[in-house]
Structure formats: structure tokens, C-alpha cells
């Protein structure tokens, strides 16, 4: 155990006029006896999940932006997302994502206005045409970003499908039916599976093979009720039936790619919400007694993923949704991994934040950091992934933003050029993704002054990670308060290799700004996310 901190010099017994709580100095989750800096405790021996990746998707915008003639701007976007380089002062140039999501389009783009999807940006090309001919030059803009990610060191790539190609669907559209069922013609199941295998084989023979395939996305929604993008619903039985067909085909093709199942619309679809046959997915897919069990299908990755939308407030709900999913995962199969595979700021967030209009300030960055913290520490996810990596809309669900050359939101102009800007969503995600690398292990961390989990959602939060190979320690601290906060740091003898931490701070005015701080005292700036790195012995 690395003990970061020292005991307060005064006990409750020595302070007059203060009533002890059930935990001595702790009343309503707050240490009322503090007269100086509080304490952080890190237990390196108490290991939790092993981290696999942090990622984002190429959806919608990169098909145009990846074909811009201005390579400098494209490289700036790629650096923001993937770079592990730093400037001369040690400040990171990017957030070092370790997974990139590639959307396999269904062909709504080629249909144009006849697709029924009003927004051209939300239509996607398809590699396969109606005559069963493949054109691997399609999705060229997305392929540029695929290569840019690899060039900057990304090693994990995930291909995901949200709809079968339009020629295989029941309504000849890339948007789903107005009911719960999979928009796939019965006689085209094999053709759809063969299409996915062909896409994977093509990229495996190229320089950027896919590690993972996600064949379904948010099947709990009825995508045909108000078509705005590609997507289809699907019941658990329909998903299981298709996976039993797809897995053996992938194995027979000799693919190294594995199937990542889930992409549930929100956390409680993993452990509840099964009235229409589309919920309780942990039990449905990974309980061996279930009729929909697919844990033994070839090429299946041993994991299930969910999206963090609409389960983030108030604080008690932020915790309980994730705790219920984690409890169900442990009950069904403790060895099963959970992923959070899509998140962005959507809709009204308890009257405090909103997707519209676009807001890229620190309040929104702190909210993102808080969601990441709870997905990692309560749901114990091993991968955490964002939705729109590059956003062209007047909305808050992006990391990197594009405006038209005049600073507005003319989508037609943005197809060929635009202004590139960052966001606090980007940099607060970077407080995690840039430093918590694949293979790092989350270890227990606690604050002496904030012991109530719900209270912590509005005050301070901490998580910690170690790399057993390099002996690196990473601590991420969130300070939601408008006041600065101090913590004492006592590494306990020779357990830390040096006397300082490298500190990377994101605030309203800073983006992963590097500094150093003595291990004895850490000061968190108001409204900040701070990452500390050091080595241990």
C-alpha cells in the first residue's frame, strides 16, 4: 500500500463544539475535524480491472473532413485525438486515444435524399453495391483517419455496423423498422454475415486490420420511428441467432478479429428492461441456461458493452445504474469484461447542462470526467469510448469541433474546409486517456475527507492506476468545487521513486498543463481535473 497523506494533527476529541458522527470525525460523508490538508490513500496491492483502451468514433463527419485538401488542418485534428507528443514545456499535444472506431456504412449516402435520412452528414457510404461488387475506395475520408490513427501509435481498431447494407434490409433503407425487430431480410442473413467478413478480410490484408467487430448498435431503439441516421433495433433472440451465424464464418475465414457484443443504449439494458425482449443482456447472452446464450460462439470476445447516456444524474442514479450492472455481471459471470462504448453530452442533464447549444467550457469537461470516473470505478469498465470525435454541429457531444470558414454552421461549406477547435470535453477525457495506457491496472484509491459516494459526485473524486512493468503510478483527481483543495502526500518510505509528481491540469484556462509538485502537498485548482504521475519502487 502506498499511503498518500498524514493524519490530521487534531482529533475530534480535541475540538470543542463539534458533534461526532457515526464514523467519528465523518459526518454526512465529510470529515468535520480537518484543520489542514486531507489525505489520499492509494492501495497498490488492491487490484481491480486491467485497462484495455480509451477510444472515440469516426462517425458522420470524417467522410468529408478526411478528404479536405488542407492536410495541416486534418493533421491538427488527428494530433488532438491520437498524439502522444508534447511541446517543449511538456504539455501534451493530444489526448493519446488507444482505440479508434470505424463505422461500416450501410449505403444511405448513395441513396441520397431517397434514403429518408434528411441530413447528408448522417448518411454513410457502403463498400458493397447493389450488384454485389465491392469498391474499397469508398469511405475514403474515414480511411484517412484510420491511417492517421495508426501513424500516431494507435493499435486497437474497432469496426462497427449500425445497419445491414440497404439491399439486405426489409425496407431497403438504412434506418430501422418502427418496431423492435432487426431490419434484415431473412434470406439475406448469410449475405450480411459474408459482407462483414469481407470487410474484415480486406482490412486485415491492408495495413490497418480491425481487432474488433461490433455488429449491433443500440438495438433497444426503434430507429424507424423518426429516421435521422442509420440504425436498426433488434431483439436478443435476433442478435443471438445472427451471432451464431457470424462467429463460425469469421473463424473459418481465419480472421484475428473478435466480436464485441452489446452497445446497449444505456446501462440498465444490461441488467433490466427486458419487457420487449431487448434488455437484461448480461443474463440473456452470458448465462449458460439462457436460450440466447452465445458465450461459446467462436470469435466472441468475452465482454459486453453499454452506453452511458441518460444514466448520469442525479448523483445517486449515476452510481446505482452502474452498480446494478456490475452486480449483475458478477452474478452471471465474474470473468466477463464490461465496456462503455459510446458517450457524449445529449439532451437535458437534470437542468444543469444541455447538448444544445454547443458548450465546450469546463463545466462540460468536468461532467465528462465525472461520468468517466464512475464508469471506471463503479461499473469497472476496461474500455471507455466517446461518440463523435469530430463534430460539425451546434451541439455539445464532440471532442474536436469544426465550424465553417466564417465561423458558422454551414454544413455544405464544411464538406471542403472549416475552422478547427478543441474543447474541454477533449482535454478532460485526456486526463484519463493520455496517461492510463493499455495494460494498466486500476487500484483502490480513497480520500479521507470525502467518504460518501453521492457527496463525492459534487465535490472531489479520485482514482488510481499502476503499470506493473514500468512501475508507473497514475492518479486522477476531479475537483468540482469552486475552491482550491489541498491534499497531503506521504508516500511511506521509499515506495515512490522520487520526491515530486508530474502534474497535468485541465481548468477553464488550462489544457493538460504540465507542472511538478512535491509529493508532500498537492493543490487542486478550483473546477479542475488533475492527473499525477510518478514511479513507485
From TrEMBL:
<dbReference type="InterPro" id="IPR039743">
    <property type="entry name" value="6GAL/EXGAL"/>
</dbReference>
<keyword id="KW-0378">Hydrolase</keyword>
<dbReference type="InterPro" id="IPR013780">
    <property type="entry name" value="Glyco_hydro_b"/>
</dbReference>
<protein>
    <submittedName>
        <fullName>O-Glycosyl hydrolase</fullName>
    </submittedName>
</protein>
<dbReference type="InterPro" id="IPR017853">
    <property type="entry name" value="GH"/>
</dbReference>
<dbReference type="Pfam" id="PF14587">
    <property type="entry name" value="Glyco_hydr_30_2"/>
</dbReference>
<dbReference type="InterPro" id="IPR039514">
    <property type="entry name" value="6GAL-like"/>
</dbReference>
<dbReference type="GO" id="GO:0004553">
    <property type="term" value="F:hydrolase activity, hydrolyzing O-glycosyl compounds"/>
</dbReference>
<feature type="domain" description="Endo-beta-1,6-galactanase-like">
    <location>
        <begin position="39"/>
        <end position="401"/>
    </location>
</feature>
